[in-house]
Records
---
Amino acid sequence: MSFVFRYLLAVLATAIVFGLGSPAAHAEGEGAVLTYPASYFATMELNTVRDMVTRLPGFVFIDTDTTKRGFASSAGNVLVDGVRPASKTDVVSAVLDRIAISQVDRIEVIRGGAPGIDMQGQTVVANVILKRTDENHLIATLLNTVYGDGHLGPGGSIEFNGRTGDDSYDLTLTRINRINDDSAGNGVRFLTVPGQATTTDGAHRRGAEQVGYAVNASLSRPVLQGAFAANLTLQQTIYNSAVFYDAPNAADFPANSKVRSAEMGANWDRNFGAVKLSLVALQRLERDQNFNASIASGSNQVFNSVSDTAESILRGTVRYVSSQTLMIQGGIEGAYNSLNGSSSFISNGVAVAVPAANPKVNEKRGEASLLASWHLAPDWALEAGARFEFSTIVAQGVPARDLNFLKPRLLISWSPIPGGQIRVRAERVVGQLDFTNFIASSNFSGAGISAGNLLLRPDQRWQFEGDLEYHFWDKGALVLSYTRENITDLLDYIPIGGGLDGPGNIPKATNNIYNVEMSLPLDRLGIEGGTLKPSLVWKDGAVADPVTGATRQISGTQDKLLQVDVLQDIQSWDSSLDLTIQSAFQRPTFRIAQVNDLRLHPLYVGLAWDYKPKPDLDLQIKFFNIVPYQFDQIQYNYAGPRNLSPLTSIQDVHTHSEPRILLQLRKTF
């Protein structure tokens, strides 16, 4: 923890040295709402609303969480005209990427809540307000990625969007070429078996991109004296990857996955005087097909799985704004989720039974909420309320389960000085069960077979958060945040049966999250158009290992992420530069008979150049992983449970990752 405190002291010392204690006018407005007009971004070479949001001082963008079921629980922290799009597959970041900066009137950052705004369960949200002018745009985007092994990854999109009167519309066709990670490369594997000499093999990782196609369409218009919006998303992606090792322990681990999804959503909002009614309907369908194999001398294993999931959501909220200082909001949400899955595991030509190989699961879930937002005084705000969640889960082969949780929330905000705000939050958060954990899965090159678990419970977290936010120098901000989580039914690995483990619940755990975000404009230091943005997220979790009983880190949790961005806008060149540096990190996973330790070091370095010679023409060149990092995976394998069984092997793989270059041309007609 000494690193965290040293980092905090360094940030505070920097703030004092550069005069942070002397606030200047920051954007427009004080207290809960800060307003950034379009002119605020005039000196920055930007293209889309997403670019604008990432430049908001002290604001950390949170995207839609597609892993969570339900609508309210998956929300990000950006609204468009005060409304969240009725979509999950089409995440908020993609929606923002399709809105040009010419369409933006202003962006409001609401801190701690404001009457009339649905905060989506967040402490801070950005509300993008669009212009009401009639215009139509045709936007063509071409991109190509040059990978370290020389192959190319072409992609692009063509989009038509516009507004006529009160009607707005958008249609986008996309060739997807999405990067999953930068770990592809070549290296070496050291394989150690107790009592034998260590052997050395060449190691290779291939397949870093996900390719496919997508169609996105949306329409907004007045209906029945209210605002109606509908959207449609159709998407298909394929991801192929492979890990293989040279002799003397030659082995090949090919894998591929194919995902098809379809989603249709609609929302309708209408004001009845001081009362606003909001209705949301959403239907989502998805099919996941996965193949994974292990091919080695004398051994051949194949795992296949197919899962069909569906999600149907109806949601209604009523907001009553009795005055400029008080809002009361109530709502109800109903959802039906289902999973039909099948999987097979064949080892050396023999079928092997796997727990929860062919699950059939459905969930009926409802949630009722009541929330009040009250500005007690110009400098004080209070948000208090609760949600009650109830659900019934039916899984073939096990008794039906009824679950219910009360989720209270309290948020107090105090703005004692211009530009400054202190927030304190206490809330009970209940996780959403990931249906993919109900079905067996495999990763032969990593953790092997994982059994499904039909008896999972969602984790519950009491979160206690404190934030200190301060804005200075017009474009500067400092945010210090600490969150304590007391966790019940933590999702981790537990014994399932048949000699396998899988996702399960551990009774108790704790987690401490330290977060520092800073935007330091460099104009006053003589570097016009420059901004320094250091960021630190440190997670210090603790849980009793279900095998050994010893206290350890929570599986799959990255210990820290220290990132420094250096932004430089150069108006005379119609350009902007973004240098990104990320620190090393470690992410261990603890299983019953195995420990996997993933490490990245020493640094991740990226550089982006954005050249905009005309308002309607933009060229981007992004260099990823300029200083190739080392991607290490250390795997300790045991003959059985780690507390009772001997170590059978240690696999130490060091991969030298490869750089890549992205070229993108965007033209607006």
---
Amino acid sequence: MGGISIDWFNKLLGRFIPAQTLANVREGIKHPVHWVRGEGIDPDHITPWELLLYFFHRAFSSMFSGFTDKQDFLYKERFRIPPNSISVAGVVSSVWDAVNDPILGGWMDRKRLGPQALRKIMRASAITGSILTVVKLFDGGMSTWQHLAVLMFCNMTQDILGTMNGIADQKMRSGISPSSQQRGRINVWGNMGYQFSWAIANLPTVLMGFREVFGLDDYQIIFFGACIFLPFGIAAWILPTFVRQRVDYSYPVAVPQADGEDAEPPEKPTLAQTFQVVKHNRYFIANSIANFLTVFSPDMGDELMIYRYIMPKYRVFGREMGGEGLLLLKQMLSGNLSTVLQPFQRQIINRLGGPLRAQQLKCVVNIFSKLMMYLVGYKSPWRFGVLILMETLINASVSMDQVAEGLLNYEWYDYVELKTGQRSEGVTTAVDSLFKKSITNNIGQVTGNAFLDWTGFRGGYTEDGTRPPEKYLKFMWPMYTLIPVLDHAIWFTARSFVRWKPQDREQTELLLAERRAAEQALREELAEDDAP
């Protein structure tokens, strides 16, 4: 009877979970130590131990950034720096980014850095970059311009470190396995780590919501919390350096010619050649166009500031709940669907027809949800319930999109290598990073700050017991909900011009595997000939 029951249970789960996954789970229960170490699995498969490294990488990073991401909030609320003054640092940083990011990306592609060099870059930037992130939060009674000078110095230093770290991370992730599907697993486990760390990452919101109870102000919560979790921020970027590199991209490869014969590869590509290869990456080109078109979209800043000032106060279980409490409640409830679906994101993406379709679906979901949030509003409990439902759909689609983006990046890096013989993580990551930093930290912040300055917003209203300007209260919700609608419409249109199916990925990986095997055999043969 017991055997029948187990078979029935396995058949039921088998409808939703791949048979190989169930077999892995059973093996993990029987032999947990061997399973974690990856004994007996395909050599190209990522071991559970390595997946755990990415799990804690994302968890620790989320814990640390839960405090450090409050930087913009702190500058406006605590330091009361005028929004347009903060934009000065953003403009300087944008120019600095535009100059050095592409050059660093091309240089790192040209150098063909091996795993050891990439590990050193990530470990050095983990320590220095994390410390500078905390330095930017320090007050010490500085004036507005002293704060801005510290901000610009840290941003400019972090930009070089962060770009090199991001490129090294992408190259390490690409080298962890020749299979895009296997590399996609680290994104899934990373997202699960993010969900795991949710409570600590949102601790600042909890503490600020109960300031009177704990006797702490905004600055104490953010700065000292960041100092406490600084070791986690450093460890977050050191953990991935311990993964095994199954593909070493530091060797030059031969490029197939029109006559079918391999050409002798150059010793190193020129800097210009490292940029030329990206013309084969249509996904990167589409993303760059969308990034360029949305670069001026206003960044509305930390959600905490929005909820603190525009949300009404509700009575829950006889107690009054303000904006901070409502934000925490929304985050708690709206993340449940994403948490449940997280372990199966890769399988869901494959069922949808591949990562490109999954990203298009994410755009549609966000357009619909943000429009509903704008139309319904937030000024009653049932409207707030609709808002939570829409945020639930958004969170689930964003979580899926993150895995899909990782899959597509790896697949197109492989395609470019197949076409040109060169890896392009450096250039593509650097340029993509340039756009993202310009949107979130620089140009988007400039336009967002210009909007805040237009409304007359100056911050510190809770501490002073005063009310924000009427312009701010009137226009913040439309800006918060409708700007993403336009952005996602642009992203959907750009990605609709890309043609890439799972069959293309399979063909690319097959041809690359054959070429790499032949090149490895040739290297071994030459090494034997050179041996005394």
---
Amino acid sequence: MSQIEVKNLTFSYEGSGDNIFEQVSFSIDTAWKLGFLGRNGKGKTTFLRLLMGEEEYLGTIQGGTVFDYFPYRVTKEQLSCSGAELAEMWKADCESWRVLRELEKLNVEAEVLYRPFGTLSFGERTKVMLAVLFSGENDFLLVDEPTNHLDQTSRETVKKYLAGKKGFLLASHDRDLLDACVDHVLVLNRQSIEVQNGNFSTWWENKRRKDAFSQAENEKHRKEIQKLKGAAARSRQWADKSERSKIGFDPIKEPDHKGKRPFIGAKTKKMQSRVKQMEQRLHREIEEKEGLLKDIEEVADLKLTPLIHHKDCLLRVEDYGLKYEGASDWVFEGLTFTLHQGERVFLTGKNGCGKSSLVRAILASASGDRESILQTEKLSEKGILETAAGLRISCVSQDTSWLKGSIKEFCRVRDLDEPLFCAILRQLDLERTQFIKPMETYSEGQKKKILLAASLLTPAHLYLWDEPLNYIDVFSRMQIENLISTFCPTMLLVEHDVRFRKTVGTGEYEIARTFF
């Protein structure tokens, strides 16, 4: 057990005018199970890179420990290597028996370690990396978003695995995972950093109480400031009136004006001194209270304009199946369900079962050019998949890699109202300074907010969202939950966040793979 001391940490990327960290100081213990929270773009991944020594910074980070980072980087050329070969590249002195021991705890067969890494599913790749990560001793492990793209079964396995470990920093936006796995939290607030004992729910409850107290104090302070301003204004008026009375006089009405001038001057001087003192007091009050609300998360209410379709049933799927061109097996078959207006249905199933393929098939059906799109996607179908005539769909895909260029160009190509689009991004807490930067420089969470904002701005009968919350911060997740609960749009979603599904869902349909 040792301490990691961060003192006066200051960092910004080259060419950026904004500091991501400025004079930051705190300490953490390497024996903790530490959750790492913060808004998208606040610097969570950057801080992990600083711990790994990948960037130069001002200040000091001291601690007698070795850091290791998940996920490991894998190049295209390395995808043909086995997990065992990669493990030796990822971690010095990695011992196979230790990795195999960890794989057993993750419910993974040993043979997975000796298959080409490129042939493994997302879940298998994650588990192999975690097994290698935790196969060492005395390292402080940095785990960055381990459950993104994982199905629910794999998420539960990873959650139970991490709950039995310690000595790690877990950066995640999954509230269920954080509650199950951590005993301390490190939080990047808007203007400060705090370290607190407990899991996510403990921290969130404390934050709500602290924010409520700060808001009440701020309201009291605001009223006091208004009174002070009123008193200062009145005193200033009296002082100015007295000052003006020294200049000009009527010798008939005021024959003794020469005696009054010194008296008026003395009175005015006292009054001006009093005004100055009140203004100084006012300034001190403001300085003392300045920053009182700096860390309050004021989540803006988002708006949505769902369209009403003349038909109640928007989607009918009956005994439906899909397979890829040249494949002998169907990805899935026999799928049957309907989607009616006002329903919010989640598609569930293991990675690779065809959830995203079904999303593409639905988009093809509604496009009016079904055959050519399915041919482009190299998909064959059987059974019935019917979408209501004239159905307008607003889609969020799980892929953000294609986002490039400026927001202005993005809005022009998609025919979006740029000022309104930027207003939605601000409500999703994207900083204005990001608006002038190319989107390829955004964090993954910021890119996903671009797609969500575009979808919210597009009036539709059906909102088709494929893993919309990957990389999205906790506050924005709750913001989107409130939006859906308020406007009750018709939605078909692929999303593995348990709390999100329970909060907004009206039903679930599981897709089972027909091959393994």
